[in-house]
Design a protein that fits this description.
The structure is a homodimer.
Chain A lengths: L1 E5 L6 H15 L3 E5 L10 H20 L4 E4 L7 H5 L6 E3 H12 L3 E4 L7 H7 L3 E5 L13 H16 L4 E4 L2 H5 L2 H9 L3 E2 L1 H16 L3
Parallel strand pairs in A: 1-2, 1-3, 3-4, 5-6, 5-7, 7-8
Helix pairs in contact in A: 1-9, 4-5, 4-9, 6-8
């Protein structure tokens, strides 16, 4: 079993399970999803991240005790990854770093898309000069904005602009783009490779999980 | 189809196909393997690498023309990767960098094993402070040394030493360890996760290839 941590408080079970469901469907591995308590708005600034860190660590420690073979922190910013790694002996996989490592291994110049001001530092540190541009779709500041027809249209426009700037692949720096299945839209409509946050963390976890049975 | 470049001159078809066969079996994707001309001893110092670079680039350019969707340079040192990336528009995946990126995404302290003096620079740059140690099995200086019972025994000893030094996973910095299936030995006998060079390059290529049909 792989533990998956959502870094906001999910009151709806479908929302809680949405990332885990994508990974289970793509790789056929069992996922246990949990969300941190008392943060319905999740992480949106330094203070909300500071408060979230011990909650993420507590959930991760508990998941290791419950028998998880690896833990995913399912967020493009990899919050608390260093702190949790120092507390458990199993692999801790971050969404942002996984996507960035997959992109680096392919070596194509990438346009990064997200809903925050800039590329999350953990992704910027890994991607470095591979980044040909970063864009937040116009008017999109939270993941629910992506659910409207207008939001999707603006996101498609942003991806086109990034390709015009020289990107040969699009990297998501937001798991909300994974939840709405936006990678498939870009692959079909723009014929461009996409490195998706949830797909990448799932791919790293599944690859590890294949050998976890033997060790 | 994925192109796979062997960085020595393979006169035996079974040897030529050995890495591609591992990837085809693990991922069910078609691999076209080719080896560089006139270098039966492959790359073993700066001069032999310098001579190999244009040959690797030529093979890669030819593979893109023949319809390959991505190219693997199947060697832990990623020779000519920068040069080839500047000449083709498809992803170029290196064995060493793929293994290092997989290890980084998991975040466990790693012991690196290879048959050269030290960790290949491309892997050292990515792994950085994650490396808890590097070892070349005693008396092993080329991949054929690994084929003997004594060579395997020394390699197993080296892995045990790396774990004793604090490694929580073993990373291979030599495709010869992949060819002899040494990852399975370590997983079974030492119960340790292994990040294998050929497995990692195949895993990156297969993940990309899944979407190549749609783009």
């Amino acid at each position: 079993m792989i533990g998956l941590i959502r870094v906001f408080t999910a009151n709806d079970n479908e929302v809680l399970q949405s990332h885990g469901k994508i990974i289970e469907e793509q790789h056929g591995i069992p996922i246990l999803s949990k969300s941190i308590p008392d943060q319905p708005l999740g992480i949106y600034d330094d203070e909300s991240e500071r408060i979230a860190v011990p909650k993420i660590v507590d959930l991760g420690v508990q998941m290791e005790r419950e028998g998880c073979r690896a833990i995913i922190i399912s967020c493009a910013a990899d919050p608390a990854i260093r702190e949790l790694r120092s507390r458990v002996s199993i692999p801790v996989i971050g969404g942002g770093s996984s996507a960035a490592h997959v992109a680096r291994a392919l070596g194509l110049p990438v346009g990064v898309m997200g809903i925050t001001e800039g590329v999350p530092p953990v992704m910027r540190d890994i991607l470095g000069d591979l980044i040909s541009g970063y864009l937040r779709p116009e008017g999109v500041t939270n993941t629910t904005d992506l659910l409207t027809e207008e939001g999707r249209g603006k996101a498609l426009e942003a991806a086109k602009t990034l390709i015009g700037q020289g990107a040969k692949a699009i990297v998501f720096a937001c798991t909300g783009l994974s939840t709405i299945g936006f990678a498939e839209t870009l692959r079909k409509e723009l014929k461009v490779p996409v490195i998706d946050t949830v797909e990448s963390e799932g791919f790293m976890a599944a690859n590890y999980y294949k050998q976890a049975g033997a060790i």
